[in-house]
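Suppose you are handed only these lines of text.
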Amino acid sequence: MSSSTPPAAPDLAPNGEPFRVTPLENFPPPEKWDDWVELDAKSWPRRVEKRYSLIPTICFNCEAACGLVAYVDKSDLSIRKLEGNPFHPGSRGRNCAKGPATLNQIDDPERVLHPMKRVGPRGSGKFERVTWDHVLDTFAAQIRKALVEGRRTEVMYHVGRPGHDGYMDRVLQAWGVDGHNSHTNVCSAAARLGYALWQTVDRPSPDHANAKFILLLSSHLETGHYFNPHAQRIIEGKLAGAKLCAVDIRLSNTAAMADWWLAPHPGSEAFLLLAFAKVLLDEGTIDRDFVEEWTNWPEALQALAPERIAAAGGQARFDDFLAALRHHYAKYTPAAAEKECGVAAAKVVEVAREIGKAGRAFASHVWRNAASGNHGGWQVARCLHFLSVLVGAVGAEGGTNLNTADKFVPTPFAKPPPQKVWNELLFPREWPLSHHELSYLLPHLLLDGRGKLAAYFTRVYNPVWTNPDGMVWERVLRDEKLVELHAALTPVWSETAQYADYVLPMGVGAERHDLMSQETHAGRWIGFRQPVRRVAMERAGKPVEWSWQANPGEVWEEDEFWIALSWRIDPDGALGVRQWFESPYRKGERITVDEYYRWIFENSVPGLPEAAAKLGLAPLEYMRRHGCFEVKGSTYDTFKKPLAEKERAGTSDDAARRIVVKDGKPVGVLAEGAARVGLATPSRRFEVFSQTMVDWGWPEQALPGYIESHIHPKQLDPARGDYALVPIFRLPTLIHTRSANAKWLYELSNTNPVWIHPEDAQRLGGVQTQDLVRVSTRIGHFVNKAWVTEGVRPGVVACSHHLGRWRLFEEVGTDRWASALVTREEIAPGRIRIRRVKDIAPWKSSDRDSSRVWWTDGGVHQNLTFPVQPDPISGMHCWHQRVHVERARPEDRYGDVEVDTNKSMEVFREWMALARPAPGPDGLRRPLWFNRAVKPALEAYRMT
Ligand code: SF4
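From them, the structure of the protein bound to iron/sulfur cluster can be written out as follows.
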């Protein structure tokens, strides 16, 4: 691995001493993990020895999938602590605060320990304990009926944090339903579309450790995507001399560590990036060979300047393309950027020159931030990747790779065929190019009369709280005609679970199986999440059939739940479901979770069987003991790989189009003097020009471009108190909705004030820190405390989306570590007010710490006041809000949230009217080359 040798840092060396990042020096060696002895800290000053089984697993508290090692006390099989796994290639033993806090989640006295069934009306807070058998029978009957009656769009699984790679896709295809819904369109769909238009692959993998210049459009170093594995490599890169530029509206911790902090007007980021591109083009600091060989520039030239081709006698010349490109982007001058973005022209030039200087070693990343905040935000990612393409940094050492090059997803033992139906509750015809499901519009679509749900599973998903317009979610989740049967699969109570028919406890990171692999760096690895107490019991000679028999209470895991449920849906195999859940080792018998992973480790992970054999272990045992495996080291330039002899057989070369063709279809490219694999785009190259955008009704977006945001300064009237609200930044210590059960984390972070610049505070009548302000959106308002700080741009206010948890009942609802007790009142028809009646306060429980809770705040839930704002192309919810800010009124109280749900549908329809619906060419619902979650069969793509 290129980043395994820590570099010296000349500019940080104290007293001239070289300063090095050191690997962990003090960790139990793996050969002692079966029986590790430590002195018990709590028994001090007595020397009491404790014997532990050390069992690796994978953190489930964000997407990064860092390695953890659980210390299981051999005397009572309790989990005493979790530390970083130093042998995990992504995290290398380093975790953020959320990793070790997994222990809080396991020991949380508020957690759901048994399956619960609602006994009062939905939302009444009345539940009783039931058996897993009852749950399985109830849902199996409901799903079976839907399948038998051909209602294959009425079974829906809606996931927040997947935490696995593909397991559930397989289950849903085995059932033959089009029912996978995700959270992606409130998260990353916009950025994904921007990347996918270039290269099909929708995620970047920056090689920070080897970069010379790093450009981040997020508070990435501290809280962003792949937070800890990336953060440590960004610092390594910096220690080796890389420069860092953070583009962030806030002075985040990342910005504070950066060489350049640029805070453009929110929504103007794409303009800024195009200004960088113009400097590169004008100064010629591009990788000419890369752009010529690896982009579809002839198509771009044809679109931009066909007259140049005509003048050259029909020949497309690369220099003409560059001239046309310079002409196309002529208006994005540094001076224009200064005007549009509010960033000094000199800084624009400075940063652009650093990008040009870094060349192939230019690493960049955007995930949420500007991409997910703005109408047209997907162009931010496209423009950012434009820079990487221009300097030839894609796939290069120190550059920005395709995530598929740095991620490993193994195949399971049998793959069901794709479903033959298309669910318009997931992919409505209005948004044919949406990158993922229009997940946050589900209640609006249901209220629009577009269907109903027979069985609805929310899994690690809390839409009432996480999504915009949560009160419309609440309305639909209460409606038994629209949602007939709802199970919340969750480790904890939540704002959504309280409206469910069943609350089904599922394990946290140390209580479940999953496979995880992420693009944390230039390398590929696979991590094995496992229920550590179950593994400890099995090591101690106490085998268990189901993980819930080893976890606290009857906490289960989804893998086994889906196997058991599928078996009951189709007990005799007549529906064709059961066959996918039969053991590959014991014909006709139900597969076990051990067998599922055993098959994968034996057959689908290159090098693992051999590595295991060297240690005298079976592959499954290797993964149980080590928790991870490095699949392959170097991953650069994968798209440049020459076609293998086998792949070349039966092909012909289309020299004019520079592609390799087989049976009329492109299967590779002719580039750099050879036939190579290329990409999966229509041109098989990076697409600077997208014919797809033209064909699907968006010709004006065929190239990387700038779309004015819905919060463009033109839309704001400062004299009226209008501001742009940036509501999507994270705190490094919290998770969106799953950290309410972690006392250590809430002790660290328990308030989310509104950031206001001092100039704006003056304009608002001398608002001071801690004063209450009312922030009004199109559909409501919230009342929060002000934090007056120069760490935010004037004209912009900001509020973290991580806090403001609430519960309706003292005994049932979101954890008391994190939530305030509130009342919910309908103060006028459709007008809902949430008002806090009790702060966070100490309470008595089995955990003595609960009586020591000293924090009272917990923050304010702003998302309830946001209308849905679906981007007309990507479908991403555009999170930023145009708001009116004023001092709180006499009737306002801290934490008040008021929403007019009558206006919600009005705003939904306004935004929907901006979309350009399918069908596209050939009567299709969506371009076939676009990826789609749980992709259906071709026949489902045709609109009838
Ligand atoms: S960054 Fe933190 S929360 Fe995310 S996986 Fe790693 S330790 Fe867990």
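What can we learn from it? The mean pLDDT is 94. The first strand starts at residue 36 and ends at 39.
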